[in-house]
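Sat 14:20. Reprocessing the chain from the morning session after the first attempt stalled halfway. Input below, unchanged.
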Amino acid sequence: MDSFRVLLDQFTTSVETKDIARFTKLFVADGEYEDVFYGLFRGREAIGEMLREHFYGNAKDFRWEMHDEVCDGDVGYAHYTFSYTSTMKHSAGTRAVFTGCSQFRLSSGSISHYREWAFGLAGLSQLASPPELIAKQAIRESERIRANADRVLHGI
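Finished this time. Tokens:
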């Protein structure tokens, strides 16, 4: 558990300090990062580009806390609180706070796959996002949920 806590601290601190090189080294070479808003990125280079283009291209002053972590050595989970100040034109200067859950699939102590679930629509509403952006995110979340569900079991 202690090594997972260290990984979480390195993960969050790297984002907060804009240390893209350190962040991407937490992943295996072909690791994956599945972001609730921006989708799936494969490989360290793509993950670094996601941070550069999307995270730091749209926001600043990141804070990321991981709470209540559990890990069996292969898979870890943590509840998180994540915040930033938007730099997007429709919400520049607005502080948004999100909450959600992270899942880390691990390989020899490195991240092979990261994904998250979040109350994304609540965050978008804090940013006074245009209704069409909120609707687009709601559709994206619905599609992701349905795509990962057992189609037979759930009758879809």
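The beta strands are 27-35, 39-42, 59-71, 75-86, 95-107, 110-118.
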